[in-house]
């Protein structure tokens, strides 16, 4: 049964982001120039997900410590995709309970999950990242 407390997972299709590449996480950086995640594919090319303003929250977890998330993604047929959008996010609910964030009318928080070969980096923000391929 799906209700408003069930997290829903879908592929986040952003132009210029290769969902099927095998990525290693090279860097997660939170600084004055914004927040970015740098991924390197097997051919050595770098893809950077850039939020120009600081994000509201993020966390980085070893992939092996998120088996439940991986199982849920497998159940909906998106295991192996690298950029996921999570609706009805428990992470966002937790942040709201902690009073770290406020609801702004007309603005919706988004929960992104970036999956690399060993890490899952989750980001909470109002904006989608800019994709930079090098």
- Number of helices in the DSSP assignment: 2
Largest sheet: 5 strands, antiparallel
The SS-based structural class is: mainly beta
What global shape is seen? globular
Unreliable spans are none
Strand content: 35-45%
Give me the strand/helix succession. Answer: EEEEEHEHEEE
Number of strands: 9
Strand order of the largest sheet: 1-6-7-8-5
Ends apart, CA distance between termini? 43 Å
Percent helix range? 10-25%
Arithmetic mean of pLDDT: 86
Radius of gyration: 15 Å
Task: For the structure shown, list the relevant keywords.
about 130 residues, mainly beta, 4-stranded antiparallel beta sheet
In brief, what are we looking at here?
This protein has helices at residues 67-75, 90-97, and strands at 8-11, 23-31, 34-41, 46-51, 57-62, 83-87, 110-115, 119-125, 130-133.
Question: How are the elements arranged and paired?
Answer:
Elements lengths: L7 E4 L11 E9 L2 E8 L4 E6 L5 E6 L4 H9 L7 E5 L2 H8 L12 E6 L3 E7 L4 E4 L1
Antiparallel strand pairs: 1-6, 2-3, 3-4, 4-9, 5-8, 6-7, 7-8
